[in-house]
Design goal:
The complex is a heterodimer of chains A (143) and B (201).
Chain A: E1 6-7, E2 11-12, E3 38-41, H1 59-67, H2 73-84, E4 87-88, H3 89-96, H4 100-112, E5 116-118, H5 130-141
Chain B: E1 18-26, H1 32-39, E2 45-50, H2 58-61, E3 71-82, E4 85-91, H3 99-106, E5 111-116, H4 125-134, E6 138-143, H5 153-160, E7 168-171, H6 176-196
Helix pairs in contact in B: 1-6
Classes of the chains: A mainly alpha (143), B alpha/beta (201).
The complex binds guanosine-5'-triphosphate and magnesium ion.
Keywords (chain B): GTP-binding, Hydrolase, Nucleotide-binding
Protein name (chain B): ATP/GTP-binding protein
Family (chain B): Belongs to the GPN-loop GTPase family.
Chain lengths: 143, 201
Amino acid sequence: MTDRWFDEAAGPVVRPYAMTRGRTRSGAKDAQLDLIALVIAEKAGEPEPDGATGSGLLPEEEDKLLADHSLVPEHLDIVALCRSAPLSVAEVAAELDLPVGVVRVLIGDLVEAELVRVTRPVPPAELPDESILREVINGLRAL
Amino acid sequence: MVFGRSKRGGTTAPAEPVTLKILVAGGFGVGKTTLVGSVSEIKPLRTEELLTEASLPVDSLKGVEAKSTTTVAMDFGRITINDGLVLYLFGTPGQDRFWFLWDELATGALGAVVLADTRRLENSFAAIDYFERRGIPFTVAVNCFDDAERYPAETIREALDLDGAIPVMLCDARVRESARDVLISVVEHAMRNAARAPADM
Ligand SMILES: Nc1nc2c(ncn2[C@@H]2O[C@H](COP(=O)(O)OP(=O)(O)OP(=O)(O)O)[C@@H](O)[C@H]2O)c(=O)[nH]1
Ligand SMILES: [Mg+2]
């Protein structure tokens, strides 16, 4: 296993990356996840059934997570966090107290496993609609 | 224009909130975290980025490769405008050698606040240059510390050699209304910029 602790590109792997098995990139083909991309559990709308385990997960989500031995407890935490409301990548990292780079890899795994999806924020070099900017201004005025 | 939606363009999924971000930049100790905290609906959160990531430009790793646990902290806050619209504020790390993190933060940013302190105006030069070069709309907000001398906004504009279109205002980062007005100024400025250069923004 020791040879796995090195990633040709990254050099020595620091401890938090152990939970990504040394990967510093997610397998997902998507470009690097933006800090304000929202992570949404695929089953977000569905209420927990009676007799749920209290993990914040649906039984089918839990089965899927536990069946996949490449997944670690932090993957479960992310799905549970995002089930009640969408959370940005930055918020997930802050909530779990993990470096953003680690969280990105974990979220990428969950996207591949179809347990979560992520929104794509405004592409660079593009400003949102004027109507959205007006909405922001009005919202700020109301603060 | 379609954005902020899942790339799959799902058919039945409810509309997902659009997320926007504004950066709060400026020199060390100028009040960035204070400003974020005074308008955020949550206590500013903190994320860390490890400097050993493969995504870093090779140059930026020089001198830090030995310290594999070096981290940069970024703090951020959130303002929920409504169900469909959430604004995030990011305090940028002050140290110049973390420019590459700015690039990531600045990508897709609606605009920025450059906080300045009249006692150390030169500490805001780097941020001003950065946003000017990238065409990111910004407002310069002079944080009025109690023991700092007050100058009119126009004097500060001259001292910073700012284009007349760039808003310059005085603020108190500790006061919610004041911080809010700075953000409004950024969004209004972004809107004017967009109107001026609709094609190639
Ligand atoms: N008098 C006065 N003090 C302020 C104001 N804004 C911030 N401070 C104080 O200045 C100090 C630094 O403020 P921070 O918000 O931590 O500054 P920062 O830019 O986030 O600092 P770094 O992240 O370390 O670069 C704190 O002790 C604040 O309480 C202000 O408008 N007036
Ligand atoms: Mg700070």
